[in-house]
Amino acid sequence: MMVETVKTPWHLWAVGVLSLLWNGFGAFDFVQTVARGEAYMREAGFGDEMIAYYNALPSWMYAPWVLGVWGAVIGSVLLLARRRWTVHAFGLSLLGAVVSLIYSKLINPPPLSAEMAMMAWMPFVIVAIALFLVWYAWAMAKRGVLR
After folding, report:
1. Which end of the chain is more exposed for a tag (fewer CB within 10 A), N or C?
2. For the whole model, what pTM was predicted?
3. HEC profile of the chain
4. Interior CA angle at 129 toward 124 and 107, to 5°?
């Protein structure tokens, strides 16, 4: 029985490392926000209005946040390890990002202010990156690069 070996494309390493750096920052931000709260947010440049908005998030919003952040970190590691479960991890991350986007844009949008406006585009960027990573992992799985 012959086993065909699929060569790992160079771009997998580039996407994997960039993904891990991007999502690693998300994990750092999550841990700092949960562990240090307002002190971290002030150090990050958040004003009173932004801090009040984030402190008022309902506790159920932690579920999509956890899925989004940790699904992405696990997906990045699995991508670098060339594992088929990468698609599932990034899929969970995308789900968390979409739920967060829906909450922040449709259910409970932050008040309109100059301070909040600078972050208004960020949920869309996060969803776009998560969507790309799901697609990329799916494409690599389809090509047989992920085992």
Report:
1. N
2. 0.89
3. CCCCCCCCCHHHHHHHHHHHHHHHHHHHHHHHHHHHCHHHHHHCCCCHHHHHHHHCCCHHHHHHHHHHHHHHHHHHHHHHCCCCCHHHHHHHHHHHHHHHHHHHHHHCCCCCCHHHHCCCCHHHHHHHHHHHHHHHHHHHHHCCCCC
4. 30
Tokens linked to 7: 């060569």
φ, ψ dihedrals at 122, nearest 5°: -60, -40
Token code pair at residue 59: 């506790």
Q: Tens digit of pLDDT for each residue in 24-69?
A: 999 999 999 999 999 999 998 888 888 898 899 999 999 999 999 9
Do residues 23 and 72 lie in contact, with contact meaning Cβ atoms separated by under 8 Å? yes
Q: Give the angle 18-29-58 at the CA atoms, nearest 5°.
A: 125
